[in-house]
Amino acid sequence: MDGSKGKLAYKLPFLSKNKMAKALGGRHRAVRATSAEPAPGQAVFPRVRPQAHQLPWMCFSYLLPHLLPSKPGLDTHGMRHPTANTIQRVFKMSFVPVGFWQRFIARMLISLAEMDLQLFENKKNTKSRHRKVTIYSFTGNQRNRCSTFRVKRNQTIYWQEGLLVTFDGGYLSVESSDVNWKKKKSGGIKIICQSEMRDFSAMAFITDHVNSLIDQWFPALTATESDGTPLMEQYVPCPVCETSWARHTDPSERSEDVQYFDMEDCVLTAIERDFISCPRHPYIPVPLQELVPELFMTDFPARLFLENSKLEHSEDESAILGQGGSGTVIYRARYQGQPVAVKRFQIKKFKNFANAPADTMLRHLRATDAMRNFSEFRQEASTLHALQHPCIVALIGISIHPLCFALELAPLGSLNTVLSEKAKDSSFIPLGHMLTQKIAYQIASGLAYLHKKNIIFCDLKSDNILVWSLDVKEHINIKLSDYGISRQSFHEGALGVEGTPGYQAPEIRPRIVYDEKVDMFSYGMVLYELLSGQRPALGHHQLQIAKKLSKGIRPVLGPPEEVQFHRLQALMMECWDTKPEKRPLALAVVSQMKDPTFATFMYQLPCGKQTAFFSSQDQEYMVVFWDGKEESRNYTVVNTEKGLLEVQHMSCAGMKLSCQLKVQNSLWTATEDQKIYIYSLKGMCPLNMPQQALDTPAIVTCFLAVPVIKKNSYLVLAGLADGLVAVFSVVRGAPDNSCSYLCSHTANRSRFSIPDEDARQNPYPVKAMEVVNSGSEVWYSNGPGLLVIDCMALEIRRRLEPYSAPSVVMSVVCSSECRGEEVVWCLDDRANCLVMYHSATYQLCARYFCGDPSPLRDVFPVHPMGPEPLLSPIASPKEPQKDSLADVSIMYSEELGTQILTHQDSLTDYCSVSSYSSSPSHRVPTSLSSVPCSPASSSSLLFSTDSGDTSRLLEPTLGSDRPEHDLSPVDGEAFSQHLQAVKILAVKDVIWVPRRGGDIIVIGLEKDAGAQRGRVIAVLKARELTSRGVLMDAAVVAKDTVVCGFENENLEWCLAVWRGWGTREFDVFYQSYEELGRLEACIRKRR
């Protein structure tokens, strides 16, 4: 048979879905296995479920062992003559377990494919080096330990019980061996490695696979027979004997004449020396580095071997940092002057061992202990060497004598230690929400990296999470450590009872296969620690804890409104679900936590059936609901800081409330019967008799307390439904007898020359008022415009025109821009547009359309603050005489309603504000060419963080016949109701804009090449609130908490409480994962 054809014919077919269906549909149907393996990057997608006779090879491919040929398709013995560049390893077994070879070949193919992919990607792009790193690497000659071994896919041959890999300068062979052992051993495994460069690190690669496969899947082979002899033994044929006897001895007699070193002898010798003596040629020492390369870590680069002269460490108790499993001890040390942590593997020393070297039992026990230590050392060191991630502890170096490795030293110790200290002063989230969010994200990022490498941590807990910094501005806060019991899954899961009780997933039981979801269960327990500061205690005995976990019993944390980290608590509960398939993947968790909603959403609190929602204007965390009227009227007080209803449906008879204001120790309430009741809060709840009652000419629609202008005094402004503003002077908590009124209609006509038939003269209710310019002014809504009150003179001095009728200003807030100067934002109810004014110059600086369904990263220009616009107020040929409060009389009658009489020298003007004007809407012709607008009027622009592209318009350009500042809808409803903004909230140095659909647009101002621009820095949307109805109102309480009120069709309210983040908090949040991603990219480039 031709060699190349033989290789092709007896390669395992990874079948297409049609051939796979034939093979699975009829087990006895012959299917010619002649298709070659997929090339690198090529995938096969059989649409079948994996069965017992299939083994996963890659994500969408399965190994079909029953289709493998029984023998290789070419003569492999001709190329396997022992030479001086050949070493062998033999595993003697009492029996070869069913399924051993199939699993072994699958594992080998996976590892070889990963190395092949690495070679393929290196050739494709040697500069960027975006390659998948395998956990194994083959090193070159012993002098420089540099890897030269690479596998090409067309040089791999495998059959039912064997595999052959050829490469430049050598080959690697693994096959079933039936050798006459002179005992009852039935067979075993024979491994041959040949290398012209004497690079035998491939032997370490193979033996690692064999040993890990036996430990995980076939642990019965590690037991002993009834007479005490092991069921499996390892032997190493002496390469010198093999070479010399191969020239003149018949191969069938070779086992009689070749010296076989027992692996136990090699291990015990390696503890003391680097070579072993063969009794057949004692004058020629055999180097152990070639004979058992895995013990000397020859597949590690030279740079990772510690120089013992530069390692300063002491094994005193004062230097001990902790103890690991199997007797390992971690010491504080210094290497090359830098602090490190040294993990020392202790090999037991038996008494009288030196005096009784022939004691077989003592020798076996010591060898077993040494082999276990070498195995654990190699397993963990190999894992650490292959893993390079910012959130995984880095390997500094290894040492064989003594057996140890050095790691990065965590300055603050373990997470458990830090939480124990911080939890003393806190009931929940002892590290604070921002640091907790970052730590949880970094843990998930490390887990996602491990799972991408097919590694199952198996022992995730707070003790194995090391803390580098508690500063939220630091890029890295924690790193994962201790991979002593981690498993590599090879797409088939893992076996073995590993982990710590309380963190161990319930599916980890003897002979039960598990996958990376066990790490997600442990991650849920770590989240519990982050939220509570306590260990997940469920008992003192492992069996007791395991039973509770399998029954679904979990540690008790508390309701979400008490914990106040809704998303993290929900993720915790999702991760510790009893069913693994319901737990999220680590990569999905990382993606989920990149949304700022995850960190800012605190909790939701159902409040039952209510009528009106009111918040406090001062530093308190209270919000109040009122419901009912007359005798059934009641109120509910919600403490948002504690997340509870402190007062529920407390009776307080009276008319239905229209608005309320809490100022100092007084509560001002306005009712629909045009009255104001003032309650004293010094006696706390319940509210009984009002301290004072005031009459108003119309229903009060909003209140505003103006900061103190004199000692123990302040002003309370009440906006009325007919457009008036009532001004009350309060001294020592009580209003005096005088009350003055500011008339919007009169000011519009006499001061700003707006005729009565203009739509702006309609009696619009006052919907919003805001203190501006450090308390010297109050801006309030008047239909589509804003009127400015001088607080000292109590006069309306200016009118601004942000919108055109029929739009009505519904929200006004004051905040600061990049230079610290005050700006005023306003929002209307029709155009759904934000308008920003510079408060000092009254200049319109920016507009932003809030109806974009995908507003994230939208940008809009903020024009420089220039001189005061010429047309605000609109100049008249003859300046009218200023109206004073003394020249205004207010009369009320049932027939005519409220009448405002302004007295002047030659005439008396009369206007009725009891009914809405029937005058047709009229747009005042304005010429605001100097007022800047964003492109295409109210369009919002997509902002790209990479290029700053602002070319995409999100709203069509309005007609040319409209003024630039007219943002009224073009045809009916120009946007969906759920995109309508409800209110503007000034939160620190940003503004939050809640929309009726429940999402919140967060806008910040930033400098860009010397100019300013506005940008949507976040869109907060809690899916948990979709069933709560429509967002009706929102407020900022205590300056750092945002409360949104939702009402459903049954008039039931629910509060959604958010952390009030400003620019600093959002910057820290975004940088936390952006910098982590940058560090990951840097590490990949260095690789």
TrEMBL record:
Annotated SUPFAM superfamilies: Protein kinase-like (PK-like), WD40 repeat-like
Low complexity bias locations: 942-951
Keywords: ATP-binding, Kinase, Nucleotide-binding, Repeat, Transferase
Recorded superkingdom: Eukaryota
Protein name (database record): Leucine-rich repeat serine/threonine-protein kinase 1 isoform X1
Annotated organism of origin: Sus scrofa (Pig)
A GO molecular function held by the record: ATP binding
Residue numbers spanned by region Disordered: 942-966
Residue span(s) of domain Protein kinase: 315-598
Gene3D superfamilies in alphabetical order: Transferase(Phosphotransferase) domain 1
PANTHER family (alphabetical): MITOGEN-ACTIVATED PROTEIN KINASE KINASE KINASE 20, SERINE/THREONINE-PROTEIN KINASE TNNI3K-RELATED
